[in-house]
Amino acid sequence: DEEPADGDYATGQSERCGSDVSGFELSYFDGTTWLTSWDARVGAPQERRVPTAIRIALSLGVGRHDPFETIIHIPTSD
Length: 78
Fold this sequence. Notes:
The protein is mainly beta. It has no helices and 6 strands. It has strands spanning 2-3, 15-16, 21-29, 34-35, 53-60, 68-73. Strand 3 (21-29) and strand 4 form a beta hairpin. The two termini are 31 Å apart.
């Protein structure tokens, strides 16, 4: 839950950008099905492909909370 304070990941400086993160899940849409992983390496199931969309689910705090969810559509996908 940290990112660089100066926006430059090469410097190693960071600042807290979230707290009490209790869940973080990514799902990848291949155009037909939501998948729990994506592997675009040569010889992998999604070889040299980009997902059509990525769903992000983020839960904050302890106990049972409904996650914040958003879907990002990837314009460069097939």
